[in-house]
Amino acid sequence: MKKLLNDPNQAAAELIDGLVDYYNGSVTKAGPGAIALTEIAADKVALLVGGGTGHEPIYHGLIGPGMADGAACGDIFAAPPPNVILDATRAVNKGQGVLFLYGNYAGDVMNFKIAAQLAAAEGIRVETVLIWDDVASAPPSDKESRRGIAGLIPIVKLAGAAAEKATDLEELVSLVTLARDNTRSVGVALSPGSIPATGMPTFELDEDSIGIGMGIHGEQGVGVDKMMTADALADKLVDLILADDLPIGSGDEVLVLINSLGSTTMMECLIVLKRVKAILTEKDIKIYDVLLGPLVTCQEMAGLSISFTKLDETLKPLWDTPCSSLGYTKL
Amino acid sequence: MKKLLNDPNQAAAELIDGLVDYYNGSVTKAGPGAIALTEIAADKVALLVGGGTGHEPIYHGLIGPGMADGAACGDIFAAPPPNVILDATRAVNKGQGVLFLYGNYAGDVMNFKIAAQLAAAEGIRVETVLIWDDVASAPPSDKESRRGIAGLIPIVKLAGAAAEKATDLEELVSLVTLARDNTRSVGVALSPGSIPATGMPTFELDEDSIGIGMGIHGEQGVGVDKMMTADALADKLVDLILADDLPIGSGDEVLVLINSLGSTTMMECLIVLKRVKAILTEKDIKIYDVLLGPLVTCQEMAGLSISFTKLDETLKPLWDTPCSSLGYTKL
Amino acid sequence: MLDRTLSPNEVKEMILSICDKIIASEAKLSEADRKLGDGDHGLGMQRGFTAAKAQVEALDPKSIGEVFSATGMALMASMGGASGAVMGMLYQSGGTALNECEALDAPALSRFLDAARDGVCNLGGAKPGDKTMVDALVGAQEAGQASVDKSLSEAFAAIAAGASDGMEKTKAMIATMGRAKTLGEKSIGHPDPGALSVSIMFNTMNEYVNC
Amino acid sequence: MLDRTLSPNEVKEMILSICDKIIASEAKLSEADRKLGDGDHGLGMQRGFTAAKAQVEALDPKSIGEVFSATGMALMASMGGASGAVMGMLYQSGGTALNECEALDAPALSRFLDAARDGVCNLGGAKPGDKTMVDALVGAQEAGQASVDKSLSEAFAAIAAGASDGMEKTKAMIATMGRAKTLGEKSIGHPDPGALSVSIMFNTMNEYVNC
Ligand SMILES: Nc1ncnc2c1ncn2[C@@H]1O[C@H](COP(=O)(O)OP(=O)(O)O)[C@@H](O)[C@H]1O
Ligand SMILES: Nc1ncnc2c1ncn2[C@@H]1O[C@H](COP(=O)(O)OP(=O)(O)O)[C@@H](O)[C@H]1O
Ligand SMILES: [Mg+2]
Ligand SMILES: [Mg+2]
Ligand SMILES: [Mg+2]
Ligand SMILES: [Mg+2]
Prior knowledge:
The complex is a heterotetramer, with 2 copies of chain A (331 residues) and 2 copies of chain C (211 residues).
Chain A: H1 11-23, E1 27-31, E2 34-37, E3 46-53, E4 70-76, H2 82-92, E5 98-103, H3 106-121, E6 126-131, H4 152-165, H5 169-181, E7 183-191, E8 209-212, E9 223-226, H6 230-242, E10 253-260, H7 266-282, E11 286-293, E12 302-311, H8 315-320
Helix pairs in contact in A: 2-3, 4-5, 6-7
Chain C: H1 8-24, H2 26-36, H3 41-57, H4 64-78, H5 81-97, H6 106-124, H7 133-146, H8 152-170, H9 193-210
Helix pairs in contact in C: 1-3, 1-4, 1-9, 2-3, 2-9, 3-4, 4-5, 5-6, 6-7, 7-8, 7-9, 8-9
């Protein structure tokens, strides 16, 4: 496994510096791992995202107008420490409070929880919405223990638009909760990514096996299956989403996201999209917009996930709001 | 090598259908392999791009407002046939003529040349600008035999903006020629991609060797070197570009593109960008904007390329023009 | 055999020996996390205890709590991840309970462990049996409570054994917390990586005291 | 031994035998392109000759040129890539020269090859020695010119040998055209994939006629 690195243990720190260079002035470092928009409107309700690095462009590539105001970055695959989150919270806070929006992983939950306490002690109002879109990780009855995977892309985009228009933190929480509750995902792993510091694969999988419902670090879900065609896989994944508790049916409108976990090509994502479109068309479900590509990655892991966000009259105008960030831009 | 495909020999046809689904109405199929914007202004000078598939998101992911008007797509790694190019030409032509803009490969040149003759026979005015940004593929004295690699991204974006404002085909040709002449790239291969129909790797390279100046299909360039750090590699690649015949020095402004060839992670691209920024800052060269990611790929090939486009007072306003496409969007 | 108390400076030395031991266990801990999680537990612990080492080396401690709290702060600020929060909280909460304490004896050790357990369980909500580091921590904490009347030397031996036991028990458990949760039955047979770390930490304390 | 001419229907049969042969040579041709190019030459040829087979099978040809031209059009429209253009042009230009021809004899075969060479060289600018399919084509074309006074059977044997020779010579050449150009000296030792295809095509013609 050849990787372009300098000191493998400094990969996270170097990539964050490179990310700030990529933002080219629009984003500023507020501390190690803490980055925020250079200019935030004076009375804005702030949106802070964050999580481990190594999954680029999430989360820290999603800062910009109509997207997040800042991000707290941890080491590779590790939630950010509370002090990093606090630095980022201070940088985005404009007195109207800060929404913490991140994926539901034990490490993130605990570190953000400590940071929220520290922020509250400084008089900063903080609310939290957890992203738990992965239907494979727990049954609908136990939603709070589902993990966040690629669905965070549409959710952060909708949250970014909501943060532009929300007049207070409560309104933002309720809009983002709606976006979160209307989003479902499920993924498949074909082959592992590797941990930059050790070069070790993140999990093992036979040459002809695939992991249905695997998480973005290789956490297992529904189970291991035999390799299959793109169409058969699309059928299986769409079934898993549509069988969940969010009713999506005739006449509904959805956003579709086909997310590559890293090395799965745009070609393969497009072939899967073709089938997903055919299935939805057959069920008279309308595709409002499509997102596709390596947006939530696990290094060079192969595999993809499918996410649907059901749009209603509240979410549609949020989706239509222009936004700009390294990971997602909409004219 | 697990790939999500149905019939491997139909990969190109299926991915083009999926691509049209991804465009979700804004782009229409004008024939097998030929796609074009559904709505093109009545008196627009048209911009047509094209080439083999398998390198997504180029070229066919670059259609949209402020970008290309249409694309002619070949099979995987194969230039499109003349009839496909002709279909696409007819679809984009609004009577003001069509600029063919594509990478300088024998197959593309011959097929587009035949298509240009067929179009001329129908009374459609066609001009051509070839993209030849790869400094490793031939000396500056033999520029016409250089190949086109990742530099085509900034060139197509600038061309798209130029096509919005050009009053005739000549003006478009001269603006696009300027963009082409001001762009230089060089790449490095870490490991091969694979040919979808056979699963065979596109080239071979030792576990500790890298190919400096390799093309996007594995065509060799300057030569094989030992694996090195991200910083050492960035130094080497930047030197190769700055040693070329385009003077870039103190006070100049450049676009920087760090392109992943497929499975090279955003993390690695960012670490390389950090070094490139440091080198340019040291030389007092200003970074006007940065592009980064898997924009010109060769399936799951690992490696990256660096491109610089030197901006002058003609090109800057073109760069600043908003644009939207699947592969690149600018607010 | 130590039947006296430990001074703040001895506790500092003891923590430094834990730092070295954990740093040297990186591969083993990451490998354990590769079985159940994302394979980075050793890297996080190495990062944390490298930071803690620097922090603690610079201390001229006046109280026992000061050493533990400084360790916890360093872990908390440098690691991130689930283990950054729980390991940081373990030492921070435990240390706060010994803020005024100038000599570590068996009752103080037990107070440290009680507070550490409360801090970690309040933070992450894990209970014994969930297959987390809490199992090893509770093993130590219960042994500490049972040892309040013993010598400090005996108390350290007991908490080390309790932590090891707790860690061993995680092998047979189905994970119900954290990344391993989705593995279900497949998590059986492997020790929880965080529990392994806790067991290494308390066994290194015991070696410092009893060797 | 054939010392008569070929009818349009016999030329059709001959082309169909080329189609089968090329389709079966996919792996060999792709492998040759993996050495010097992007590894897809066999795939393109397979695609093209599968399309040509369907097209030509449906023909009820009145002239020799009609068969060749239909072949060229099918290749041109279905293949793409460098070989789609040059192979398509070979049959199209050659076929156009025999539009009025109802019986293929040695002089007509030579006219076919002259026109094919001109078409391909005008399109791509390659000269003999550039290590392309032109080397094999020119080998055949020169043998065809030398055989205008021979029987058709002898002429076919000669052009097959000429194509093989031309292909063999490409092994020693340094590529100056197409993808292999940047390989420089490293291109020595491998035959040009397109030349290999041309040699297979003309040898299959010869087998059809002389076996
Ligand atoms: N809620 C929790 N309470 C206590 N410990 C936990 C909890 N969740 C996870 N852990 C511990 O964290 C360990 C994993 O640490 P590490 O691999 O460093 O973090 P991450 O899971 O973020 O990659 C687990 O083995 C477990 O012992
Ligand atoms: N300018 C040219 N003139 C004639 N033949 C050429 C030219 N360029 C390339 N070729 C032929 O095309 C062959 C490669 O075909 P193929 O692999 O199918 O196309 P591509 O290079 O587009 O992948 C080469 O082996 C060579 O014989
Ligand atoms: Mg982790
Ligand atoms: Mg090709
Ligand atoms: Mg872990
Ligand atoms: Mg080829």
